[in-house]
Amino acid sequence: MIILTTSEVSQAISVIPRDYFSEFTMSIRDDSTNVTKLYPINTATQVGNYLNFNNIFDPKLVKNHFFDLRLFVNFNFWNTNFNFWQLDNQLWNKDDGEVKDIYRDRIFCTDQDINQLQNNRFYQLNEGQYVEYNGFDNTYIVP
Q1: Tell me, what's the pLDDT at 57?
Q2: Mind listing the pLDDT tens digit for each residue in 15-70?
Q3: 122/116 Cα distance (integer angstroms)
Q4: Assigned domain for 33 exists
Q5: CATH of residue 56
Q6: How far is it, in rounded angstroms, from Cα 98 to Cα 36?
Q7: d(Cα 44, Cα 132) in Å, to the nearest integer?
Q8: Would 92 be classed as within a structural domain?
Q9: b/e burial code for range 79-95 (CB count within 10 A of at least 16 → b)
């Protein structure tokens, strides 16, 4: 699961895809409203086994919502076909509606500071709603 925020600035996403492409389409579907938004990604870079890219979400993501993430390459787009045409002229005339999924995952949107590796901070469902009070000395045992 990928954790993102409601920020309006660019957010970094790093995934291990099935295949590596520098240009693809990212689809985000809100599970609550069933609204899908497409984002063209054309600056992805491969670093080791990871595919890294940045994206600005417009409209911004909704806090405490889950989203379905899908990265795919649509071979009917002209730019993708042009890139393949440079490698093989036979593929240029092919228009079969092929869409190749390269990654699928879930996204959760929250503004909480989550850093499990360094600070051991986990997501708290009721953050700020319930405060534990520990002001009593419970060491006294009644005889």
Answers
A1: 92
A2: 999 999 988 999 999 999 999 999 999 999 999 999 999 999 988 899 889 999 99
A3: 6
A4: yes
A5: 2.60.40
A6: 20
A7: 45
A8: yes
A9: ebbeeeeeeeeeeeeee
Is the distance from CB of 107 to CB of 67 less than 8 angstroms? yes
Task: Tell me: pLDDT of 86 over 60.
Answer: no
Domain assignment present for residue 123? The answer is no
Nearest to 27 by CA among 37, 42, 16, 13: 37
| Angle, CA of 29, 35 and 40, to the nearest 5° | 60
Rg of the Cα trace of the chain? 22
Domain containing 56 equals 2-109
Q: How many domains does the chain have?
A: 1
Model pTM score: 0.70
Q: What is the pLDDT of residue 3?
A: 84
- The single residue listed with the structure tokens 């938004």 is 37
What are the DSSP calls for 14-72, one per residue?
EE--SS--SSEEEEEEETTT--EEEEEE---EEETTEEEEEE--SSPPPTT-EEEEEEE
Residue 117 lies in a domain: no
C-alpha to C-alpha distance for 85 and 18, rounded to whole angstroms: 23
